[in-house]
Amino acid sequence: MSRDDERRSELAYRERSVGEREHRVTGRESDADSRDAVADQREVELEQRFTEADLRDRAARDRATAAERRDRLIDRRQESSDAREQDADLRDAAADERERRADERDQAADQREIDMETRPWGER
What we know:
Radius of gyration: 53 Å
Strand content: under 5%
Largest sheet: none
Oligomer: single chain
Helix content: over 70%
Shape: rod-shaped
Mean pLDDT: 87
Structural class: mainly alpha
Number of strands: 0
Number of helices: 1
Order of helices and strands: H
């Protein structure tokens, strides 16, 4: 073999070696890129799950807050109803008291009339 042939053969060998190394490096980079892409996808999925969980938690808190508001409203309405009932009871008691006093006055007037009728004419 001539010197040029040897040199060409060596250059061809080196080019193949460099190409194979580049192919291996490129393959490793491709594998690393694939792993990174998978990891990125998993991270996105986890973030999505956390976001969904946060939304569910927020919805549950909103429902609990709404239930508490409804309960407070019901309590206020009940208190208002109780107060109206108590006011009505007080008005009824006051009316009963006025009626009792009127009855007492009527009885006292009736008794005075009876007393006047049963007295002798000179004491009237």
